[in-house]
């Protein structure tokens, strides 16, 4: 296997670093966790990416989740073109915003009212403000390893036990900003129960990735989500499902539809923007009506509900109404996951595999991964070998062990089978 030629990417990365901090506009793109220099992309089509050196890759990042229909899906591209020609932003309401809200509510009935924003971060930040304003309480519970965007108060590293205060994970976040945040281990319902019994009356909300996708894919234990619902109801705490990744990914109705749990608020992003920058938060009418201008809790946005982004989101969600899409995605994803699992088994490579619909993960570890602590036990050096081995063979996986593999409708059986074949070669070098 010849080494990839990536001269132009290397040159672009060197130049990018003279203008952009670290050469990238979002840190994980920089390959810091796997070493090497990032590949600069020229174009995407279907399940493939082409880099500036004209290497082609089968892409399993899918822009980190949004591209469930693949790159440059012709129907989405057409709607974006049409929308652009009518003007890119008006700063006044449009019917497209009603349409996208309607499509979201049809798939996720718990979102009785929806407010559009521009990113997942903005959605979670706004949902937390709303929960605090609505309950007139300050404290927030989040879980270790769950990512909700770069919201100040959520950039927290848990203390050593539920009684100790956490510390900020980033300079620039004052201790005072996280003093109302309680970080608990994911999948540990007793920890939630204990904290809520003690100080339930202080807690505004619990925010959770109902199926976690930002420490690799970690599934909730049986009864965990039901437990969260029960405890929050008992203490009058707002339950926020962060479905920025899982909404329309695992099913049109997200994790809440698969587990039959109705959160009070839900945050969305990624797929609902069809590849353009969109986020949304929504939920119970009584809570959402506290948002300005119908209520006192302020939240606004110059480009929120942007007509081009709405057009991309509408066509995407309309296409996704076809339930046959999720059936095919399930088959393809299962084919990939089962194939990767077999490669590991045959080669005697310790690995723990997780999957829900078209998001999946191969953890290089011999222990089950159920939370952040167990995820951290993975062999990240082995993951780096996996990543570079696959990249050299033309398969673009996330440059970090702690991310999901995303399958899109554009992935064919042929590409999936060649991915498995390449993986079989790569493990020989482990
Ligand atoms: C990606 C993601 C976010 C942040 O969304 P951005 O659009 O990157 O701000 C929040 N929550 C979850 C669960 C995510 O996966």
**Cα Rg:** 21 Å
Please state the average pLDDT score: 96
| Helix percentage range | 25-40%
Cα end-to-end separation: 16 Å
The CATH topology label of the largest domain is Aspartate Aminotransferase, domain 2
Helix count, DSSP H or I runs of 4 or more residues = 14
CATH homologous group name of the largest domain: Type I PLP-dependent aspartate aminotransferase-like (Major domain)
Q: What form results from the Cα inertia axes?
A: globular
What CATH architecture of the largest domain would you give? Answer: 3-Layer(aba) Sandwich
Taken in chain order, the helices and strands follow as: HEEEHHEHEEEHEHEHEHEEHHHEEHHEEH
Strand content: 15-25%
Structural classification:
alpha/beta
Number of spatially distinct domains: 2
CATH uppermost class of the largest domain: Alpha Beta
Largest sheet: 7 strands, mixed
Please tally the β strands and state the result.
Answer: 16
Name every ligand kind in the structure: pyridoxal-5'-phosphate
Query: Reading side by side through the largest sheet, how are the strands ordered?
Result: 4-12-11-10-9-5-8
Poorly predicted residue ranges: none
